[in-house]
Amino acid sequence: MSALDELRQLRKGGAQVRKGDNRAAFWFLAPWFAGLLLITVGPVLASFALGFTKYNLIQPPRFIGLDNFARVLSDERLHNALRVTFTYVLVSVPLQLACALGVALLLNKGLRGLAFYRSAFYLPSLLGSSVAIAVLWTQVFGTDGLVNRVLGFFGVEGRGWISDPDTALSTLIVLNVWTFGSPMIIFLAGLRQIPEVYYEAAAIDGASRWARFRSITMPLLSPILFFTLVLQIIHAFQSFTQAFVVSGGTGGPSDSTMFYTLYLYQQGFSRFDMGYASALAWFLLLIIAAFTAVNFWAARFWVFYDD
Amino acid sequence: MSRGVRRGAVWAVLLSLTASLAACASGSDAGGDLTSEKVTLRFTWWGADDRHKRTQQVIEMFQRKHPNITVKGEFKEWNGYWDSLATTMAANDAPDVMQMDELYIASYAERGALLDLNEAEKHLDTANFDQKALATGAIGGKQYGLPVGLGMYSIMANLDLLAKYDIPVPDDTKWSWDDLKSIGDQVSKAGGGQVFGVQSPGINDAAGLSIRARQQGKAMFDAEAKVVLPQEIARDYWQYILDLSKSGAAAAPSVTIEKASAGLNQSATATNTAAFGLWWNTQLTALTAASGQKLKLLRLPGETQGPAPGAYYKPSMFWSVSARSKHPAEAAAFVSFLANDEAAAKVLLTERGVPANQKIREAIAGQLKDTDKAAKEYLDTVPVSDPPRITPNGASTLDTILKRHTEDVLFGRTTPDAAAASFIEEVQSEVDAAR
């Protein structure tokens, strides 16, 4: 009996079965349900309410209307944080996906030892947002770090990459691109789905390699590309750990690694202005929602659904 | 039916949550007797390795005296410390006893997070503290912190480096900031790109700027918490930092920032890559241990050119007790032990500053290592003027604001003059916002 038949059977089955099942399901789901309520929904609603207050974390919040949201418009450091975050998202996500696609195409050729390469390229994604890697990054890009030693070998004078506002953000972008493994795995799975016959037919018709890529691979992979793009953009907007660790929590030097989330964190936990931080969290939600909406709208022009 | 179950469960969860919150609110009385039941106190401090070892030793001594009280130490670096304190406070999970800084004490006290230690005077002996010293931890007549030690801003000079380059140790009784810069230039020239003259000020704390103002008879804040720092003084300060960088007396900006942000053990002074650095005199022992070279405390430059010396006795830190501690009496007893016990003092020595407790200061005099003695002697001999007012509520971010402006200046993103104006405006608006 297939799962579908089973489901049909269940539907047909009388009310007494359903009732018992529901209750059991409820109790099995209860821990998750409690977690959702207490850890996700509760704080989300609370932060919405706090957005309209002045709240210093210790004394009770005080209602101040829309002041926090008005401040969003005039806060120059926030505008800088937005600039930094947008740069990070708009540069690192396309680069990351391009690397992921490139390597996936290479690996899809049926290399010997594929499993090894796949794991090796995937590894950074598991580590990339961890504190340990961010700490490692400060060493690698430090004045006495690996990068400078390599550059020194070629006679190029290095610098403190992370402590220079002109390059600090780039090191974080490199870090994010380096974690291309997880989209790569998804692309690899997507490439496997494309029937080989399409390529064979195209080859017989004399299509060049580029033409095959453009007219077969890209359209058939586009839903997956789109899905990954949406997820990675959201993910990049929410980046926090790397900037926090690399800058020692300051977003420095000169606010050059001040991600939106880091600024939000500082407002809440360094300036003790949790009301404003809450308002910022909701503003970020709006930004991400807007980006996602634009993405979905644009998808109509380039994403191809084969049905 | 299923909807009924769901609704019932939601109420049950909410009720139990309320009940647990209510349970948190009850606590014992600071003036009551010490309990004989098993109690765990959480105690938190910031610092470097040397401090952690000494403090753990003292905790064990206390536990031997009070077998029913367990003290759990939690320690961090300076930056992580304040992030963590803010979050644990907000989560109603603050440690019972904490090391508190002058920068933050008004902020936490005015938000009601600290216990008035007078309520626990039955367990906390302050008889051997000078009234003036005690007053540094009091706000509006309430004792929110017990001063631990006193420190003074100083120049830490690396004698081994100076000897290596054959540069005489400057006469610090009447030297100026320009003298520091020119000797710094000499060191950098001799250091050949590996060793520099001066570890740039203006990155880790605002004391240097405050000192510059005080040397000219001015101050950062007035009694009403208004920023009264003259813009020219701030401008000259950043111009000086910029000149140090441009002339090469200090390392390249990115190196300077990296070293200064990495904590005491990675600082230019500790890694012997700068001959002079601005530090608290009591950091001499830790820095000597880290650098392995001979360091000497010099007086601040510019102390004799203006109307008054800028140096002052700064309470290096305070012991504070959380207002929400469930065991305030035991916490106060622990603080009293830290502040008054001679055996404990002989372990802690001057690592947290020359003890503010006068009896203890005498008691440990014979025990001091050379570096500790030098720190005490510095405190005893260098002329000072009255201390500045406590950093007002809202200005706890003073140091990070200063650091960002220094970075902007060093990397040419702003001019010293614009940095000065922006700094003053930002600090004032932070103080205003906290009201």
From TrEMBL, chain A:
Pfam families: BPD_transp_1 (PF00528). Its main location: membrane. It is found in: Cell membrane. GO terms for biological process: transmembrane transport. Keywords: Cell membrane, Membrane, Sugar transport, Transmembrane, Transmembrane helix, Transport. The chain crosses the membrane at residues 26-52, 86-107, 119-140, 168-191, 218-237, 277-298. It is a multi-pass membrane protein. Residues 82-295 form the ABC transmembrane type-1 domain. GO terms for cellular component: plasma membrane. Belongs to the binding-protein-dependent transport system permease family. This is Multiple sugar transport system permease protein.
TrEMBL record, chain B:
Residues 1-25 form the signal peptide. Keywords: Signal, Sugar transport, Transport. InterPro entries: Bact_solute-bd_prot1, SBP. Transmembrane segments: none annotated. Coiled coil: none annotated. It comes from the Bacteria. Pfam families: SBP_bac_8. The keyword Magnesium does not apply. The keyword Cell inner membrane does not apply. PROSITE patterns: PROKAR_LIPOPROTEIN. This is Multiple sugar transport system substrate-binding protein. It comes from Lentzea albida.
